[in-house]
Amino acid sequence: MAATLRGRCFPWVWLCRRAWPGGGRHYRAARCAELKQPLAIEEVAPRPVGPHEVRVDVHFCGVNFADILVCRGQYQERPHLPFTPGMEFSGTVLETGTDVSTVKEGDRVIGVSGFNSMAEECITDQKALWRIPDRVPLREAAILPVSYGTAIMALEHRARTQPGETVLVTAAAGATGLAVIDVATNVLQAKVIAAAGSDEKCQLAMQRGAESSVNYSQGSLKEAVRKLVGSGGVNVVIDTVGGDIFLDALRSLAWEGRIVVVGFAGGTIASVPANLLLLKNISAMGVYWGRYQDRNFPVFSRSLSSALQYCQEGRIQPYVGAVFKLEEVNDAFLHVIQRKSTGKVLLSLK
Ligand SMILES: NC(=O)c1ccc[n+]([C@@H]2O[C@H](COP(=O)([O-])OP(=O)(O)OC[C@H]3O[C@@H](n4cnc5c(N)ncnc54)[C@H](OP(=O)(O)O)[C@@H]3O)[C@@H](O)[C@H]2O)c1
């Protein structure tokens, strides 16, 4: 259906969105109605905000590997169908609930949401929002929650990375990978070996601060790391790939090394040979960043405040690899899952 205004044709839904002042306009959202099927863009009716909730005008939403897994039913959390994916965003506050005291209308914020931010608007609890400092653009800010929150949690809170230590990071040119390189080199003064699946990705990782790189599609990661650091090994591994890459990385660790399991982008979950942990006094640990929101909120919140602070001080520089429009969300998912992406992929809602 279409309506005419001053001789121009507009879709009916376009007029609906703007012709409902105060009552809440409809907004567009990516919807997953059936697992493993393309997402649809739908007009969604808004709901009122609760006392502790905030309605945000979303400007950018991160496209995470986890969003794709959720829409395939392969993630540890399984929202009820239909749902709107998207777990992080940047935007401005549109409306606040009666008991909200932390932000006000017009504030620029980043936030995390269960699943609902691949949409022009989203509602979230005030505790899941952080104000963006003036110097940080909304686009770069959108990268901070998941990628930098995870990188900071893995490097600082879990592996306790020290200045001068060597960090090996896998899928190094990816969203998490580049954030790890940024924080490790520019905040923690560690030396990074970037491991990635192509020469172009290795080159990018080097440009973003890695000291050396290994293309693991062309031979053994363990042998390549040994050539770089000798038999001593690396102090910390941050692994997002899993499978044989994880096992090679584990075997590349030095005495009292730490390996942090972040993800299984390669699709295989490796078993840890416990004898390796014993022989070199190695610690193998995991990080599930989002889980800290419920289990240890101060630690979770600190990872985000630190990311914002590092960004405001110019110590880190989040890297946007590609920006897609909301209606291109399925292309954005393919871009990531086909290993074509580098850095963070964002949806722009404006
Ligand atoms: N635990 C947590 O809290 C947490 C937080 C954030 C992300 N993660 C996890 O970390 C992993 C990376 O997430 P991300 O968002 O940063 O993604 P990403 O690195 O931007 O993209 C995934 C990368 O993984 C590598 N990869 C290796 N084998 C692959 C395969 N079979 N299919 C697709 N990619 C493959 C590719 O890099 P190469 O071509 O260089 O190999 C690809 O570019 C995911 O498993 C995600 O769920 C976990």
TrEMBL record:
SUPFAM superfamilies: GroES-like (SSF50129), NAD(P)-binding Rossmann-fold domains (SSF51735). Residues 34-347 form the Enoyl reductase (ER) domain. InterPro entries: ADH-like_C, ADH-like_N, ER, GroES-like_sf, NAD(P)-bd_dom_sf, Zn-ADH-like_protein. It comes from the Eukaryota. GO terms for molecular function: oxidoreductase activity. CDD domains: QOR1. Pfam families: ADH_N, ADH_zinc_N. GO terms for cellular component: mitochondrion. Belongs to the zinc-containing alcohol dehydrogenase family. Quinone oxidoreductase subfamily. This is Enoyl reductase (ER) domain-containing protein. It comes from Myotis lucifugus (Little brown bat). The gene is LOC102423880.
